[in-house]
Amino acid sequence: MRDRAGELLAWYDVHARDLPWRVPPGSGARPDPYRVWLSEVMLQQTTVAAVKSYFERFTTLWPTVEALAAARDEDVMGEWAGLGYYARARNLLKCARVVADMGGFPETREELMKLPGIGPYTGAAIAAIAFDRPEVVVDGNVERVMARLFEVTTPLPRAKPELTEKAALITPETRPGDYAQAVMDLGATVCTPKNPACGICPWMGHCTARKAGTAEGLPAKEPKKPKPVRNGIAYVGRRADGAWLLERRPEKGLLGGMLGWPGAEWGEVAQEAPPVAADWRDIGAEARHTFTHFHLRLGVRIADLPQDTDPGPGIFVARHDFRPSDLPTVMRKVFDLAQGRFE
User: Fold this and answer.
1) Among 92, 300, 303, 322, which is 20 to 30 Å from 188 by CA?
2) pLDDT digits (tens, 9 = 90+) for 229-244
3) At the fourth CATH level, which superfamily is domain 3-217?
4) pTM of the predicted structure, to 2 decimals
5) How many CB atoms lie within 10 A of CB 229?
6) What is the mean pLDDT of residues 119-126?
């Protein structure tokens, strides 16, 4: 079974994708654990195409884990804005600071998983790619490849343990880091979700689903449940001197620790909860955004605030310090709707 790894590695040596965090096969260079870790965290729930520019900007601003550990939270969260899943950014900083204190990344999956934000997949990926440990690395691309190679018809997510077992049968002791990236590349470029290019696949002769004509229908998936809709109101207040009234969201929960526009919790019905007494005006438009588990609709209220307004639990951010790009995407959408409505 492990001879299949050799076939795939030979294909990878020729067809490996050129990615900014990757060391090309055969170059003899050792991967930088910092760049491997950063890319894996960014790639969670996100595409390679979306991550490339963020990765390049991050590594320009903070070229080492020590540099990232010393960065201001606000700067990192601002650069992260648009990638979503902001808990990843909070854990990114926590992990960088722990690793900087340790003097570097540990090399085993077990030790890596003790770090903030690193779970079984990420720990295995870093151990394999950065330290060439023979770990079984299974992401969505690998699940698809294994489901077709072995014709696993159990639907996801129930099939995950079985697909991991199949992947373990092939994972080699030699060049496990290159192999892990090779399977991902195979899924991303050849064994694609639709119209897989079976004719150029290095595993064509071994693929049970191809022989059965079932490849394109795998992996099977449980029917998706419709996403619920939550509603809320965002209050955009501008003080007489141009400062904006913002609030920092609780550390735990969605958009945790990030600055945003004040408002009540989101629910089935939008709750009026103005942060300060003022003449709040409904602009007649709503910001819409989709999170992993629900759709959000935010009504937008705006108000001109007196200079002596008490911000309460919020904070005023001076006009020259305010950068819309520092806000999470949904809050930027609110600002885009509101900014032209002030007198």
Assistant:
1) 92
2) 999 999 999 999 999 9
3) Hypothetical protein; domain 2 (1.10.340.30)
4) 0.81
5) 13
6) 97
The pLDDT of residue 307: 96
Task: Tell the burial category of 225 from Cβ atoms under 10 Å away from its Cβ (0-12, 13-18, 19+).
Answer: exposed
Indicate which residue of 40, 135, 143, 286 is catalytic: 40
Cβ atoms of 123 and 107 closer than 8 Å: no
Q: How many beta carbons lie within 10 A of that of residue 83, not counting itself?
A: 20
Which listed CATH number (3.30.2040.10, 3.40.190.10, 3.90.700.10, 3.90.79.10) goes with 229-341? 3.90.79.10
Residue 343 to residue 336: CA distance in whole angstroms: 15
* SS3 state of residue 222: coil
pLDDT in tens, 20-50: 999 999 888 999 999 999 999 999 988 999 9
Tell me what pLDDT residue 137 has. 97
Q: Please compute the mean of the pLDDT values over residues 70-88 and round it to a whole number.
A: 88
Q: Is 111 a catalytic residue?
A: no
Query: Which residue has 């955004």 as its token pair?
Result: 289
Residues 132 and 177: beta-carbon distance below 8 Å: yes
